[in-house]
Amino acid sequence: MIGEKIYEYVVDVQDTVEYGLSLASILSGEMNPPLHGACFDVHFDGHVEGRISGKISGADFAFMRPDGHVCSPSAPVAQI
After folding, report:
1. Residue 40 and residue 46 in contact, taking contact as beta carbons nearer than 8 Å
2. Structural domain spans, the chain
3. Cβ(48)–Cβ(55) under 8 Å?
């Protein structure tokens, strides 16, 4: 079946690395992302369920655009 969902995963954020400004301040609305955007590393662990199942972990480099949208080329590692 085309487009059939074969798995989903849920992760918990374990740690973040901030480069120059506080992610918590931006998420709380205390400050806006700067005009050049903001970068963060987000480390996570979780589990995968579906036709494949197991654990998932990784670190994601997240770029927050000035409008608040996050672009993240995630490359997690799954243990099945």
Report:
1. no
2. 7-79
3. yes
**Residue among 52, 59, 51 nearest 11 (CA):** 59
Cα torsion 53, 69, 36, 20: sign: negative
Tokens of 79: 């243990």
Token pair for residue 33? 């992302």
Asked if 58 and 35 count as a contact pair (C-beta separation under 8 A), the reply is no
Residues 24-71 pLDDT 10s: 999 899 999 999 999 999 899 999 999 989 998 888 888 999 998 988
The pTM of this model reads 0.70
Are the CB atoms for 61 and 18 separated by under 8 Å? Answer: no
